Amino acid sequence: MAMRRSDIARMLAAGQAKIFRDNLKPAKKEQWRWCSTITKSNKAQETYDSIGNLKPAHVKEEEDSIQYGKLEQAYQTVVVNETIANGYWFSMEVAEDDLYAVVDEGQQKELPRTMQSKREQDIAAVWDGVFTSVGADGVPYASNTHPLKNCPGKYNDNLADNVPPSPDALINAANKFNHIYRHNGELMDTDATALLCHKDKMAIWQAILASNLKAQELSNTKNTVPQLRLIWNKYIHQSYYHLIDEEIESVIMQMRRGFKYNYFVDKKDTLNVYFNVTERRKAAHINPGFGHVSSMGGAA
After folding, report:
1. Average pLDDT over residues 236-263
2. Which domains does the chain have, with CATH numbers?
3. Would you say the pTM of this structure is higher than 0.85?
């Protein structure tokens, strides 16, 4: 049903329009940008190859031939773009009598805000799903059994203990980066640089990271936990936390096209006006076993 004049009558009264417009402010922060990598797409879908699949280097003796490894695909992830959309419509009379530009404010601010909110939800869903969503290597993105493609019987482990925040939990999770291997069995140069948590747990993690002495204990032991950049997000699970190597792409926002606005008028019948906004993109995880160590934080 189209918006009628009666629907916004009180909004058009003096003073009410300002209150309404104040509620149409776009999101202050785009939290999804802090915990994902934006990748560009120029077609309906993109294919990503898992990292670390070349053979190890070797010693070449004098006059010996170089040993060439085969350039082969590792675990591939295909990310198919989706179309995200929202819109609204209103009558000709509303447009003509919209003295305080209430309708225009909705088009300019509220529509993009709903689209931004969808971006936040989609990236958060990827992070929350790492414990159950299965990647290209056949196991969940956070798992202790990521198979190495060219090293049978050896596995990567990026699943931290399911325990609440503590100095020991942080140290144990960070240490898992010291045992991440390439697909050929060599150690990978990867370290945690950031910690992603829900904003409810930010104060706890700040205390753990910033305390001069070991946090949560009556002790004079110096605090030696890894110093990580703290990233908070209101959309992810309240208990989950993730240690991230920001140099490795893992969770991405694949962008085919940003916001595109359209409108049209039904000149033949109703004279209603229609506004919509669309974008083409996809939030996804592309590097099973690499880029993060994740914990459910004591959640059941």
Report:
1. 95
2. 36-49+77-295 (3.90.1690)
3. no
